[in-house]
Amino acid sequence: MVAGPLYHKGWYHLFYQYNPDSAIWGNITWGHAVSKDLIHWFYLPLAMVPDQWYDINGCWTGSATLLPDGRIVMLYTGSTNESVQVQNLAYPANLSDPLLLQWLKYPGNPVVVPPTGIEDNEFRDPTTAWLGPDGSWRITVGTRFNTTIGTALVFQTTNFSDYQLLDGVLHAVPGTGMWECVDFYPVAINGSVGLDTTALGPGIKHVLKASLDDTKVDHYAIGTYDMITDKWTPDNPEEDVGIGLKVDYGRYYASKTFFDQSKQRRILYGWVNETDTEADDLEKGWASIQTIPRSVLYDNKTGTHLLQWPVEEVESLRLNATVFKDVVVEAGSVVPLDIGTATQLDILAEFEIETLVSNSTEDEVSDCGDGAVDRSTYGPFGVLVIADDSLSELTPIYFRPLNISDGSLETYFCADETRSSKAPDVTKRVYGGKVPVLDDENYKMRVLVDHSVVESFGEGGRTVITSRVYPTEAIYGAARLFLFNNASGVNVKATLKIWEMNSAFIRPFPFEETLFQEMVAST
Description:
Glyco_hydro_32_N, hydrolase activity, hydrolyzing O-glycosyl compounds, six-stranded antiparallel sheet, 2 domains, mainly beta, 523 residues, 2 helices, Glyco_hydro_beta-prop_sf
């Protein structure tokens, strides 16, 4: 899981929960990597290890806060020698070091312990702090009440070493269980730039996100933060945190954002864990990945959603492009796209539908159905990625517009993993969720394909799905790309631009190379 991402002196820093001894969970330390562009990464030495009584059972996730005077404070959860979850403070040993190689733990740790009435082992993951109008800082920490009420508590501090629990809660939702990896940040309703976590005032909404421990799903809602009472209220109570919108509708959890002050944007990281067996993970020697970083904006066209989009830097990996214009895909057909090897792709696709039936009754299929084989009048249609020539393995990414009782269309954006792999011991599910498609919009998707990971963005990123697949046939040169339309009542016209993608490098930092020493010295 991601911990404490930040930007400092020309480098993006990614800290993450890591077991240096094994590919399975345990001995949780903070790994550390840096990048100049969010795409190519260098591993650095471990940032923090569990070596004190207050974190001996694990240095769990946390968040960084960049103070106005240039200091960096890092708050993280430690699991104590008695497995009590407490919040601890750490800070860089040398702020002038662009790589932030050494971290010091505050000698007075822990700085926050579970309040009265909170379970000792259900109190974790402090957020980035924001500055209130009274001049004091606030953080929120996830917990639960009565085992079922997901809750975000608010603590106040002026020095990051002494904290006061504020009355009430930031927000709580019955029936959602333990909230972990809570994230809380502002978005500009004009949707143009990201905002620092401390931003307050008119023209701003606040996003509250929680990772639901019971379901291992990330949910968010958009609402209003009252800076006087320190309460947050969702715009739509029926779409509250944990019962409404998901950050990502696929294999995705424990996400975290940070404000990139160098480009005035908010960046989102998410964790993609494995669905194969622990034995498989031990054999390959690693487990779990991060998604491509995403920018996050408020969708001012709908007023109800965030827009997530791959950071612009990913486009630096684009190689040759192939364009297909106005390809007609008839109902019930599959069309191969001749692009050569299709293991690393960036796909932009737009679809228009041509109705073949004069009228249609309400569809019996609901949401994403049982996958792409489940036909309805207007869908599904989309692309088949990581497919082999015989279509014995394939992963459909598709839209499914559904006729509903009032005669309008309600559209779902979906990913079907059920035929993604012949491997027997992996999870293969149908993922997806509703996506708003406005009257003046066609059906648009962007799909990033990287061998065994597919990140799909519907309608500009209103609905996003991450798929972790394990192909056995559709690998390397055998992977292909197809269009498909399994609707019963429409033809589809598709226009696509598809880039073959280069590989990003991820390797140890070359401390011995003079060139990189000069790079560090110049930042």
